């Protein structure tokens, strides 16, 4: 078992260019890379993912940390990592054999624009990004991955190459999402309320570092803060302010864990009025001071 030592000086950008050196890969340039051999891939340190990656583990074992949560991956695991997440490979076995479909942000945006309620689906999957399957169910998912690999090769001269592969990826992503979100309860409500939930979550994901108030998001969506809070709690089971605070707290934990920025710098980056206010917020959300959280992790 190889264990990786973490270098927390910098968070490295992880996009498709990181995989350019792979020889045993199949690609739709700038959009999709399929690979199953990670030999030579530098997995040390922390990575900020700019894209989406779907993994199947055929053999071996790996311990991976995503946004401060640790996952133990082994044979039969289906695992998805999403844009904006911070990844740290803690350990990886010498016999690891993954199947991976990595998609760029362009591909991700294209995919989301074509999938109804896609943001809501991805939110559910983020809460439970991996499941383990044995036997026939895992073999069926593996066949879908292999089919994409083969189609990338045989359709490379087809003028609709990207469209063919994109739709296969969407189909396979749905297979994976169905497994990952099988225990999630779909929110009940009108299409208008579902659309409002999706729009709110997207804005919070994009703007939570700069904007912490419910009023800001209500103004952006042309509704009152009271109505926004009511609908978000009805549709998701969590209040609008809770969603905002959880996004900010997660960013704070990731920055404390994966960088050497001091607490003042992190407070400024997350747009708190001062470091004292940031400290109170962090303790309310986690039960620990920022300093104690960082020291405990170390």
SSE order and pairing:
Layout: E1 2-3, E2 11-14, E3 25-28, E4 32-35, E5 46-49, E6 52-59, E7 61-66, E8 69-74, E9 77-81, E10 86-92, E11 97-103, H1 105-114, H2 118-127, E12 130-132, H3 135-154, H4 161-180, H5 191-207, H6 214-220, H7 225-236, H8 240-258, H9 263-269, H10 275-286, H11 290-297
Please describe what this structure looks like.
With 298 residues, the protein is an alpha+beta fold. The chain folds into 2 domains: 2-118 and 130-180, Jelly Rolls (Sandwich), CATH 2.60.120.10; 191-297, Arc Repressor Mutant, subunit A (Orthogonal Bundle), CATH 1.10.10. 48% of the residues lie in helices and 20% in strands. Strands 1, 2, 5, 7, 8 and 10 form a 6-stranded mixed beta sheet that branches. A 6-stranded antiparallel beta sheet has the order 3-4-11-6-9-12. The longest helix is centred in the middle third of the chain and has 20 residues, at 135-154. The chain starts with a strand and ends with a helix.
Question: What features would you highlight for this structure?
Answer:
single chain, 298 residues, alpha+beta, Jelly Rolls, Arc Repressor Mutant, subunit A, 2 domains, six-stranded mixed β-sheet, six-stranded antiparallel β-sheet, disordered N terminus
Summarize the structure.
This protein is an alpha+beta fold. It has eleven helices and twelve strands.
């Amino acid at each position: 078992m190889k264990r990786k030592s973490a270098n927390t000086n910098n968070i490295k950008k992880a996009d498709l260019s990181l995989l350019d050196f792979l020889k045993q890969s199949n690609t739709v340039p700038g959009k999709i890379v399929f690979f199953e051999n990670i030999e030579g891939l530098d997995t040390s340190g922390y990575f900020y993912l700019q894209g989406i990656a779907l993994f199947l583990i055929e053999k071996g074992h790996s311990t991976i940390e995503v946004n401060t949560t640790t996952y133990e991956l082994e044979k039969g695991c289906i695992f998805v990592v999403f844009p904006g997440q911070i990844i740290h490979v803690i350990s990886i076995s010498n016999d690891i054999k993954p199947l991976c479909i990595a998609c760029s942000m362009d591909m991700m945006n294209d995919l989301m624009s074509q999938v109804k309620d896609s943001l809501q689906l991805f939110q559910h999957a983020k809460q439970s990004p991996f499941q383990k399957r044995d036997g026939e169910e895992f073999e069926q998912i593996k066949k879908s991955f292999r089919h994409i690999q083969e189609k990338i090769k045989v359709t490379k001269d087809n003028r609709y190459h990207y469209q063919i592969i994109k739709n296969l990826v969407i189909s396979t992503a749905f297979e994976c999402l169905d497994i990952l979100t099988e225990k999630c309860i779909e929110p009940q409500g009108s299409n208008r309320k579902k659309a409002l939930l999706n729009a709110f979550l997207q804005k919070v994901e994009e703007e939570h570092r700069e904007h912490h108030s419910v009023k800001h998001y209500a103004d952006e969506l042309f509704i009152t803060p009271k109505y926004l809070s009511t609908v978000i709690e009805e549709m998701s089971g969590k209040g609008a302010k809770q969603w905002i605070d959880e996004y900010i707290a997660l960013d704070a934990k990731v920055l404390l864990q994966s960088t050497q920025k001091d607490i003042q710098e992190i407070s400024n980056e997350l747009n708190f009025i001062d470091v004292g206010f940031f400290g109170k917020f962090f303790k309310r959300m986690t039960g620990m001071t920022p300093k104690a959280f960082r020291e405990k992790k170390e």
